[in-house]
């Protein structure tokens, strides 16, 4: 079995003028925005960096994280359902949500709340530090390629 298909999804959002509805997310949102737009940098609010170094956001960072999670989970559901008719997303799919390594317990709590508000909470959900998730994934790939 060959290596799995790998790709990167940008953590970027583009909202309507009232910031009520996500117009685009991921690469399309990044393509439509200037490189320095803060709606790409909402994950920094989970880090323990000083507040003055965190970007100003047009919406609260909790809303941005929730909206992003809602969009990416829906995309995953749509993609998987095209390939597996009888898939029960919340039973058959393991989701791994990561937090930066320097995030506080409060940041983990905020992420849990955002996951829940995005409708992504599941018994098959693992919350992990980014470095731990990357290490586990590398070990999985190595094991799968043997």
What brief labels describe this structure?
single chain; 146 residues; alpha+beta; Nucleotidyltransferase, domain 5; two-stranded parallel sheet
Layout of SSEs?
Elements (H helix, E strand, L loop, with lengths): L12 E3 L6 E4 L1 H6 L28 H23 L5 H4 L2 E5 L5 H13 L7 E5 H15 L2
Helix pairs in contact: 2-4
Summary of the model, kept short:
By secondary structure, this protein is α+β, with helices and mostly antiparallel strands. The chain is built from 5 helices and 4 strands.
Structure description:
The chain is of the alpha+beta class and 146 residues long. It has one domain: 2-Layer Sandwich (Nucleotidyltransferase, domain 5), CATH 3.30.420. Helices cover 42% and strands 12% of the residues. The chain contains 5 helices and 4 strands, in the order ββαααβαβα. The strands form 2 sheets. A two-stranded antiparallel sheet has the order 1-2. Strands 3-4 form a two-stranded parallel ribbon. Strand 1 and strand 2 form a beta hairpin. Helix 2 crosses helix 4. The longest helix is centred in the middle third of the chain and has 23 residues, at 61-83. The termini are close together. The model has no long low-confidence stretch (mean pLDDT 80). This is 4973_t:CDS:1.
User: Within the largest sheet, what's the order of strands?
Assistant: 1-2
Let me know the average pLDDT: 80
CATH-defined fold name = Nucleotidyltransferase, domain 5
Written as H for each helix and E for each strand, in order along the chain, the element string is EEHHHEHEH
- The name of the CATH architecture is 2-Layer Sandwich
What is the number of strand segments?
4
Total discrete domains: 1
State the share of residues found in helices, binned by percent: 40-55%
Described by strand count, sense and barrel closure, the largest sheet is: 2 strands, antiparallel
Low-confidence stretches: none
CATH class wording: Alpha Beta
Oligomer: single chain
Number of helices: 5
Overall outline: globular
User: Which radius of gyration do the C-alpha atoms yield?
Assistant: 16 Å
Strand content: 5-15%
The first-to-last residue Cα distance is 9 Å
The class by helix and strand makeup works out as alpha+beta
């Amino acid at each position: 079995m060959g290596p799995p298909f790998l790709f990167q999804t940008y953590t970027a959002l583009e909202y309507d003028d009232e910031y009520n509805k996500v117009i685009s997310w991921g690469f399309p949102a990044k393509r439509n925005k200037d490189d320095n737009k803060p709606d790409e940098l909402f994950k920094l609010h989970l880090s323990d960096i000083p507040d003055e170094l965190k970007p100003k956001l047009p919406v609260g960072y909790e809303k941005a994280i929730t909206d992003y999670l809602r969009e990416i989970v829906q995309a995953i559901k749509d993609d998987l359902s095209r390939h597996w008719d009888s898939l029960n997303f919340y039973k058959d799919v393991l989701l791994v949500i990561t937090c930066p390594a320097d995030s506080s317990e409060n940041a983990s709590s905020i992420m849990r709340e955002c996951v829940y508000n995005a409708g992504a909470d599941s018994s098959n959900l693992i919350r992990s530090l980014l470095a731990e998730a990357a290490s586990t994934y590398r070990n999985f790939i190595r094991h799968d390629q043997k």
